[in-house]
Amino acid sequence: MTAEDRIAELENRLGIVEDELAIRRLQHAYGYYLDKCYYDEVVDLFDEDCEVIFIGGVYKGRAGAARLYTGRFRSRFADGHNGPEFGRLLEHPMLQDFISVAPDRQTALGRYRTLMQAGTHQLAANERTPVRQWMEGGVYENTYVNDGGTWKIKKLFYRAFWHGTMEHGWAYIPADYVPNASVTYPDDEYGPDELLANAPRLWPETSTLAFHYRHPVTGKEFVPDAWGKYPGE
């Protein structure tokens, strides 16, 4: 290997490290904006030709992402405006990240865990939004694209795994306590473009969301069953 080749290799490796840091910042910014209901800023993180998979629904393009964030979420958690609402708690820490940048540095995959805490304070409750306090855990498996040197979210796949109220915990929550989407747009003005086939269900199901990466020691690809089944199914 010539000195020039060695320098080019090192520059590419450094570039990949910089890409990983940029993608991590991108995803962490998503979590912080989501915490405070800055849904305009959330949508701006996505590529124009993006896709969001959330609770059994597939939202296509920036228009679909906007229906979910600036439509459904904003109306539910921020009373129709951009920014935090008094008495609402919505925390989405981005944890345990595993980022894989493609060799050409144009696309990347990332896996994150989130442990959400949310609720409506008694002083902010009304007939439409009662007092609530709950926790939820899930995993993101995302795809990112390098758009002219700026990393954007190309595909966001949030797989909720468990949900529980603070009053009763998670051991007694019905499996379909958080129902999957069942009506598409435009019949539902904030609905997804299509429904996810074989949509996942929450714990007590214990299926594994497929890993995008190979085993870091053995190099083997590990793709478990997509959702698993309930006993007897």
Automatic annotation (TrEMBL):
Q: Which residues form the SnoaL-like domain?
A: 17-155
Sections of the chain in a coiled coil: none
The name of this protein is Nuclear transport factor 2 family protein
Q: Which organism is it from?
A: Trebonia kvetii
